[in-house]
Structures are given as structure tokens and as C-alpha cells.
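Discussion board: Methods & Data

I've been asked by a reviewer to show the raw model output for two of the constructs in my manuscript, not just the figures. I'm not sure how much to include, so I'm pasting the format here to get opinions. Each protein appears as its amino acid sequence followed by a line of C-alpha cells. Is this the kind of thing reviewers expect to see in a supplement, or should I convert it first? Here is construct A:
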Amino acid sequence: MSASDAHRTIETVWRMEAPKLIAGLARLTRDVGRAEELAQDALVAALKQWPEEGVPHNPAAWLMQVAKHRALDAARHEMMARRKQEEIGLDIASEGPAAPDLDEALDDEVGDDLLRLIFTACHPVLPKEARLALTLRLLGGLTTEEIARAFLVPEPTMAQRIVRAKKTLSDARVPYEVPAGAELGERLASVLEVVYLIFNEGYAATAGQDWVRPTLCEEALRLGRILVARAPQEPEVHGLVALMELQASRLRARIGPGGEPILLLDQNRARWDRLLIGRGLAALERAQQLAGALPGPYLLQAALAACHARARTAEETDWARIVALYAVLGRVAPSPIVELNRAVAVGMAEGPAAGLELVEALAAEPALKRYHLLPSVRGDLLSKLGRHREAAEAFDQAVALTRNVKERALMEERAATARTAADSLPK
């Protein structure tokens, strides 16, 4: 095998196995920063040896074995330095009255380790931006450069953010565990929020050259599926996975040949992924069974996505049901953005005038002051009412607020179309 082939293999194996490797090491060290360093040591060893000696038969096991040896060496060194058997330099004895065998400590079920790592990376002690960055770094297998590019910040800024996040977790002595009791609900909500934020940034990028970033959607889905496997009785976990599966089913249809956005009602539904739709609907059914009469926000959003997924054409969409679901969602998770989405649905179900009335009532909402979709929705409803000059002005406002290059081009096009329609009207 050539050196270039070996490096490609290493890159592939690393992306697949790094989260499991870091998770196992973090359980041993109780320090995600140290765990990542040990995993990186194993990667460096692979980069040195595999091009010369060939890729081992089981690359993942090779990486784990090297990382184990590094962890054992570090533990023994610190044990000798401190002369405290019970500490072993990494506080391993805190797991119980007797220190476990270090080799066995790294052989726990991978799914449990990954779940612990998710809850650690998404701990509320970290600000939301840090949770996002650390989750993508440790569990998404993305490089600091890739994460920085995804969120449009300089690489040094992102590197500092990740370093601070790891230090914060270490200083706060955050337990490397899945919490129990009341704390589980609080922490689970944080985990689900981070996973969905990652998905949303992939589904509709807030800024940059690309409107969608499928890699982020794929990473969020992978994390969601891990959560489902390890928390199978939590309805909101199933609800979030259902929502992401259903939304991801449209990714291929969301962009045109030049990367331009294609809005929902204009999409070619033959390009929707029927397998993902089937998976999403099954996850939604499971969430509904578990939730009973108390649906959570992710379940409700999945139910909204299912309305679109079940409609074979845009004309068959059950807008009345969508309006009703948004009304429930507005009570369960009140938000100006939910109300804006409800206004869109009302505009489709009851006519643009009814929708516009709701949108105008949201104009003074502070949370929507810089939200580009408020004037965009307003412009769309005004266009449908034949008020084209006002629509053009609304789309101009949306252009000024939009940071995504492709979406800005779409708004500029809609503003121009509205202005042309206005100029064609009798004076």
C-alpha cells in the first residue's frame, strides 16, 4: 500500500473510530481533554507506522491498544510520582472501593461510553457555542478547521473555544456519567438542544457560501441515533430523531444545480428520500406511543414535518392540521419563531390576508428584530395580495439581514420580481 493510500485509510478510520476511542479513554481518565490527547497520540503513532508497516488487520483495535498503553504508562508514571496507589494519578479509585483493572476499564460497552461523552460535552456548565464546538470535535470527528469553517469564525478563535470548554469541564469536575433522576431531564434537554442546533446549521446554514451543509446533518443524525439506542424510553429523543430524519429526507431537493435554494413548495418531491421518510415516521410513531397525551416540542415538530412528508404534492398538504399543531407547539414551547411559522401556515390555510395580520402583530417582537425570515414571510404574503411594491421593500429588508450568500441571492431575486410586478401595474 502506498503512503497516500495509508493516509486515506487512517483518515477514514479516525473519523469512524475517534469518538469511541475518546469515549473509552475519558471514562478512564475522567478528563475529556486528556482523553483526546491520548487518542491523538495513537493517531500520530498510526501516521508513523502504517505507511511503513502496512495497515493492521483491525485498525480500530490497533488504535485502542496503543491508546491503552499510553494511558497505562501515564497512570503508572503519575502513580510513581505521587506515590499514592489509590489515586493512580487519574482518580480512578473514585469508581469504587477497589481500583479496576485498567485494561478492563477500557473494554466497557462502546454505546455507554459514547452516551457518557455526549452528556459530558453538552453539560450546561458550558455556554451553548462551546457545547456545539466540543460535541462536533469529540463526537462528530470534525477538525477544528472544519468546525471553524462551519460556524464562520477564525480557526484560532474556535481552537480557543474548544480548549476553554475542556478546561471548564475539568475545573468544574463534571462527572463523566449519564445523570439520573431530575438531573437527567435537565441534562437531556441540553443534549437534545445541541444536537438539533447542529442539525439546523447543516439544514439551513446561517451564513457562508452554502445553503446546506449535509455533513453537519449527518453528524447530528448519528448522535441522535446513539441517544435512541441508549435512551429508548425517552419520547423526546425519538421525537428529535423523527424530526431530523424527516427534514433530512428533503436535503437533495433543497438545492438546485448551482447550489441555489429551492423552497419547500417548489421542491421536486420525487427527490425526497423515501427511506428516511419511512424511518422518520416510524420514530414519530414510537415517540407518540411513549409520550401519550403529553407531546414535547420535538415530537410536535416531527408531527409537523410528517404533514409535509405524507403529502405527495404541495397541493395535498394538510395546512389545517399544520395550523392546529403550531397552536399546540406555541403552548408547549412559546416562541416568536413558532408564531411566525404559524402565520405562514395560516396564510396557506385561510388566505394571505389572515397570515399577514399575524405577521404584522409580530413586527414589534424584539427577538425577531434581526431575523431575516420575518420580512421574507411578510414579502411573500404581500406579493400574494398583489401589494408588490411593499413586497419588494420587505424582501429588501430580508436581503439586508441575510448572512447566507445563496439565501441572499434568492431574496434579491424575489425583490426584483416583486419590483417588476409593481412596475407593470397601471399607474
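Construct B, same format:
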Amino acid sequence: MRFLVLGATGYLGGHVAERLRALPGARVLVGGRSADADVTVDLASDRPRPLAQALASAAPDAVVNCAGVTGADAVTLAEVNARGPAVLCAALLEAAPAARLVHLGSAAEYGPGTPGRRVAESAAARPAGPYGATKLAGTVAVNASGLDAVVLRVGNPVGPGAPPTGLPGRVTALLTDAGGDPAATLRLGDLSAHRDFVDVRDVARAAELAATAPGPLPPVLNIGGGEAVQVRELVRTLAGVAGFRGRIVEEGAGGSARSPQVSWQCSDITAARDALGWRPSYSLDASLAALWAAASRSEEGAAAR
């Protein structure tokens, strides 16, 4: 089976590509802007016809779109998260209309949740800012395309390789810099929000199942941990894994711009279980341990060089 993974050099895409490469008989093609990409793709600027020609030459059985941006200006968010999926769908309709499209969306599309409740796919989407709004626009484009497609609405990914653009990766970098200094202080923003964390390896497994599942799938499936965890708990647990002995100070500013607007986020993941046989396999503790172990290996490797 031939898979085309867009955004394979990113956090989620890298894990998805690795997972698919482990499948017997799989051929995984990487699509992106880099010179060594198997298929040259720039969803922010490509026109449908040239992209269709590139996709036709790749002849994928399934396309997994992991391309997306989070911390960027509104124009960039719109170009990649909204325009990108629309262009991809138009090109696929021309070049490979029978291919399965798995598009990674975001739980941010739902917007503010109700404390104590899990949000299902049928809930109204009320994104609180440009990121969630542009991801929702991408979902609408995919759902309206007429392709054999499914959107995986991913919660807050965590686990090995988490980038510093997200809170788990940023805290990991701060803990690495602090080392074992008992006088060190981690200064963070408000950590009172609740988020639904899901291991990046579980996200990759969901993408694999969605790309290879026989028959049509629901248009949207939530992929999360299924539990709301206070961000403060995540930070304290990660600090404990790292052996941090200093202070953690919440200064009320400098955190995610979404936190004051979305204080509660928790996904109902029942539909993913029913459609894909998927459920999370990693606990948050295991995810944070793997995140810290991967960061420590990277730090040791850098020191050795």
C-alpha cells in the first residue's frame, strides 16, 4: 500500500510516517517543501492543477495530511490550515479520487468546553481564536470535498519529541536548562486550564487505522485522552520526572493565548473506539516519561558532539 504523508518532518507527521513504515509491504512517500521530499508540496501556495500532477505521479492509496501551523500570525494560519486542505482536496479529486484522505484537525475547533463534560463530534464548533477557526475551515473543506475522507480532531499531543512551540516541549526545554539547580525557578503563565492530552504515538496509531480501515468512516473522529487534566498537574508531573528541585511560579501572563478563553477541553472518544477500534494506550505519566527520556538523549547527543 502506498501512503503519502504531508508534513512528515513535523512532530505529528514524523510519528505518523514512522508508524506507517512499519506496516508490512508499505511504501511511504514524504510530501513537503524540502529538496529531499518524494513529492514537492507547499499547501500554502500551490495551485490545484500542478499539485494534482504531482499527486498523480505519486499514485497514493492513502494520503495523511499532517501539515499545519499553530503559533503563527492569522495570515499564515489561514494559508496553511484553511487554504491548504482545500487545495489538497481539489487536487486529489483530479489526480487520485479513490485515495483515502486522513486529515489531522484539532480539538481547538470546538472552542470553550463545559467543565465536567466531554465534547462529542456532533457538538457545535465555536473556535475561540484564529488557530481553531482556520483548523475548522480545513475540516469543512475536507468534509465537503466528496472524497473518501476523515478528519481526526486531535487533542493536545504530548510525548517524545514534543516541540517547544507547545507547553510540554517548552517546559521540557526549561527543565533541561535548569538542570539540577535547586535554586532554579520556572516562570510560567497561568496553569489552571484543563486540557485533553493524548500521546503522539497514539495519534500516529489512529492515523494508521484511519488510513487502512476498510469502507467509509465518519467524517470527524475525536482523538484524545478522554480525560481533562489541569495543566498545572502536567507541569508538576514533568518536573518530578526530571528531578527538578526548584520553584514553579505562575505569573499569570506569558502562557497560551487560548487558556483564558478555553479553560476546559475534553473530548468524547467513543466514536473512534467504535469506528477504528482505537483507544489511548499510553497514560499521561508514560507520555511525560518518554518525553523527558527523549529530551535527555538528545541533550546527551548534543554534548557528545
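Answer (T.O., handling editor elsewhere):
This is acceptable in a supplement if you add a one-line summary per construct. For B, something like: Residues 2-304 form a domain with the Rossmann fold fold (CATH 3.40.50.720).
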